[in-house]
Design goal:
Strand order of the largest sheet: 1-2
Number of helices: 7
Largest sheet: 2 strands, antiparallel
């Protein structure tokens, strides 16, 4: 996936400025695709040059004007073309999994350090699961009455919830294994 596609999806959900896009990447999209502010602004400029997005100047009192971006027809066409392309299974890069394997060769000191890290990591993911569940209650209070777009957004969130639950189960298994050693 290219950053362009993630930006198109975000702008189709809601038009916004480069700053607003960067904030969305920090909060939600960033769980699937990360980008810095500089990358987002650079890609937006290229997408505007290519006709994929349009920008509207929005005046602001006491602050410089901002530019709100929206997806243009060529951008929608590019997104549809990308949606048609097959997706290959991603290689998983999981630093904690490598650390767990490494603990097999480090003795008690390494395992003790790993135990503390797994507990910290688990707490972060437990917080993230709570955030997802709260977002689900807030954004999808009546799942039976969603339009097609909302149903697709909800299924992505449910995937995130399922992933976090699976990860927490695995981390509990790792903790149980470490304690038993």
């Amino acid at each position: 996936m290219a950053l362009e596609h993630a930006i198109l999806v975000s702008l189709l959900e809601r038009p916004g400025s480069g700053y607003e896009l960067a904030r969305r990447f920090e909060r939600s999209i960033g769980r699937f695709w990360t980008a810095t502010h500089q990358q987002i602004y650079r890609v937006l400029k290229r997408m505007e040059t290519d006709g994929w997005v349009t920008a509207e100047q929005i005046g602001q009192d006491g602050r410089p004007d901002k530019r709100r971006f929206s997806v243009a027809a060529p951008g929608e066409d590019a997104l549809v073309e990308w949606l048609r392309a097959p997706v290959a299974p991603e290689a998983v890069r999981h630093e904690l999994a490598v650390k767990i394997r490494g603990a097999a060769f480090t003795g008690d000191a390494g395992r003790a350090a790993l135990l503390a890290e797994v507990r910290r990591y688990r707490a972060e993911h437990e917080t993230l699961l709570t955030t997802y569940l709260n977002g689900e209650k807030r954004d999808f209070p009546d799942p039976m009455n969603l339009d097609a777009g909302q149903r697709l957004q909800h299924v992505v969130l449910r995937g995130g919830i399922a992933y976090e639950r699976m990860l927490l189960d695995w981390l509990d298994d790792v903790l149980d294994t470490l304690r038993a050693l």
